[in-house]
């Protein structure tokens, strides 16, 4: 696009953050608004202007709506009256950055709007493999994929024959963690919140077994049923009563990798754990981790996963809603398990 060309403003639909949130995120904490934007990078800027195609709904986003309640280093909190942001897939319309050109497809952090001027494009990843669905770059080939890959291959260091339990197993990260553990030759059981999700884990994603935690009156008994000899490795995403029951069922020298605790996010006070002594009794190793420390693994993830996707040996289940105006409901639905697979908002076609 010529820099001397006069470019008219265009309408830009946005999802705006109303005000800081206490407790459960509600749809009316967000609203749709329309602003105007020039589809051109300002002269002399190294920014990138993109058309957003897909936006990722991720649980961590609701933490960014709180005020001084849950400070996480390295995150930029949302500003009331401004669009929220998160991971997305976009097409470059104009660029002042030497690494990006008009027409490039990218994934990375973008705002929830039709068009975004990204001032710091150094954290955008150019998409080179387009023989897989572009939406995968919000999930299996993006942050959730890095999280699952790091948790299984690096943090967990799984070995063939180990017994593995994965909570929130049908979600964006869990479905991948289970499949990665199966590729390593482990015995894998997952928990999920409906019979439909349990059937998905067992029949489509290759888990050895799965159960609906909402139908289990005694989680300790349920885990003993599926792991009579105990659990070697637990991929933790739920917390609360599930973690407490898992501690009772870990093997000696077992490992727990924690990347989330979604059951605790909206509680005014986290549930107390009763079985912490088992950490000492069983000499457990517990490690918290996040994708943010493992983006150096991205080339390994692509090299490992792309062939499996093409050969239909790894599957990724997505729940895609169409239209930016459906974004608030899709994001809120994460916290009640309304989604079936990775929750995505499709903003536009390429």
UniProtKB/TrEMBL annotation:
Annotated ranges, domain Enoyl reductase (ER): 23-345
Superkingdom, natural source: Eukaryota
MF terms (GO), sorted A to Z: 2-alkenal reductase [NAD(P)H] activity
Gene3D superfamilies: Medium-chain alcohol dehydrogenases, catalytic domain, NAD(P)-binding Rossmann-like Domain
EC number: 1.-.-.-
Keywords, sorted A to Z: Oxidoreductase
Enzyme class: oxidoreductase
Keyword Oxidoreductase: yes
Protein name: NADP-dependent alkenal double bond reductase
Originating species: Medicago truncatula
Gene behind the chain: 11444659
């Amino acid at each position: 696009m010529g820099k001397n060309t006069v470019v008219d403003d265009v309408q830009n639909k946005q999802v705006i953050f109303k005000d800081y949130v206490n407790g459960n995120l509600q749809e009316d904490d967000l609203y749709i608004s329309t602003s105007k934007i020039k589809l051109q990078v300002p002269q002399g800027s190294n920014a990138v202007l993109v058309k957003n195609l897909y936006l990722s709904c991720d649980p961590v986003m609701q933490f960014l709506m709180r005020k001084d309640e849950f400070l996480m280093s390295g995150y930029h909190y949302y500003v009331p009256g401004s669009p929220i942001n998160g991971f997305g897939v976009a097409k470059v319309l104009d660029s002042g950055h030497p690494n990006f050109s008009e027409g490039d497809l990218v994934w990375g952090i973008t705002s929830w709007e039709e068009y975004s001027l990204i001032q710091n494009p150094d954290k955008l990843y150019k998409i080179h493999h387009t023989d897989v669905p572009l939406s995968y770059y919000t999930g299996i080939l993006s942050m959730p994929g890095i999280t699952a890959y790091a948790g299984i291959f690096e943090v967990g260091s799984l070995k063939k024959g180990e017994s593995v339990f994965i909570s929130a197993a049908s979600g964006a990260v869990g479905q991948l963690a289970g499949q990665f553990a199966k590729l390593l030759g482990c015995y894998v059981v997952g928990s999920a919140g409906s019979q439909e999700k349990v059937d998905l884990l067992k029949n489509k994603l290759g888990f050895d077994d799965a159960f609906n935690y909402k139908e289990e009156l005694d989680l300790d008994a349920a885990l003993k049923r599926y792991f009579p000899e105990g659990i070697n490795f637990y991929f933790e995403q739920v917390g609360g009563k599930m973690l407490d029951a898992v501690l009772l069922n870990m093997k000696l020298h077992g490992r727990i990798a924690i990347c989330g605790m979604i059951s605790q996010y909206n509680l005014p006070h986290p549930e107390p754990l009763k079985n912490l002594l088992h950490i000492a009794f069983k000499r457990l190793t517990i490690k918290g981790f996040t994708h943010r420390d493992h983006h150096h693994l991205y080339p390994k993830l692509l090299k490992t996963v792309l062939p499996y996707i093409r050969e239909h040996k790894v599957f990724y289940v997505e729940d895609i809603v169409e239209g930016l105006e459906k974004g608030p409901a899709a994001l809120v639905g994460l916290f009640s398990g309304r989604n079936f697979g990775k929750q995505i908002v499709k903003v536009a076609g390429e």
